[in-house]
Amino acid sequence: MSRLVTSLFRKSLSKQTVHRVRRVCVYKYKPATPGWSLWVRNFSGLPDVDYTPAYVIGDDDFVSALKKDDYVIIDVRTPKEIEEGKISSKVWLNIPYDEVAGALNLSDDKFKVKFGINKPRKDDKMAFYCLGGMRSTAALYSAQELGFNRCKHFPGGWEQWVEWGKV
């Protein structure tokens, strides 16, 4: 339901704000008067989903990146969420979004011990994904602040992957 409302908001935005859409949670309630109303609240603590083209990996590019050795795909969901399934790729990591900055600040040796692969270099290609785009946006911003300049995020995330039937 929230994806539908997000897409409706996206269509109604002006050209200046088309790339930044706040993900919303929709609540239905039955008021004293007949009819249904919608209450909308913002998720707190996370940035808006960033749809700026420079930060987004397109659907086709994401699918092709999954098959490449030079693209690190980082799932920033929790381990419990990953039990439901993951997007398979040649180079895949799970780093929860709130641990991305700490993980990318580790020394090369500590990173390899913890995650089993070499630490991405600042010029390596990386793509973050989560459930629906907010946590991947936060992870993207964390990586960019550390100087990783070739990273993007897949805003559709796991929800879009499931919608495509690729599970």
Give a description of the structure:
There is one protein chain. The protein has 167 residues and is of the alpha/beta class. The chain has 2 domains: 43 residues, no CATH class; 111 residues, Oxidized Rhodanese, domain 1 (3-Layer(aba) Sandwich), CATH 3.40.250. It is built from 7 helices and 8 strands.
Blueprint of the fold:
Elements: H1 2-12, E1 20-21, E2 24-29, E3 37-42, E4 49-50, H2 59-65, E5 71-75, H3 79-82, E6 92-94, H4 100-104, H5 108-115, E7 125-129, H6 134-145, E8 151-153, H7 157-163
Short synopsis of the structure:
The chain is of the alpha/beta class and 167 residues long. 32% of the residues lie in helices and 19% in strands.
Helix/strand order, N-terminal first: HEEEEHEHEHHEHEH
Output the strand order for the largest sheet. Answer: 6-5-7-8
Mean pLDDT, to the nearest integer, reads 79
Count, helices: 7
CATH homologous superfamily annotation of the largest domain: Rhodanese-like domain
Please tag this protein with its features.
167 residues, alpha/beta, Oxidized Rhodanese, domain 1, 4-stranded parallel β-sheet, two-stranded antiparallel ribbon, 8 strands, disordered N terminus
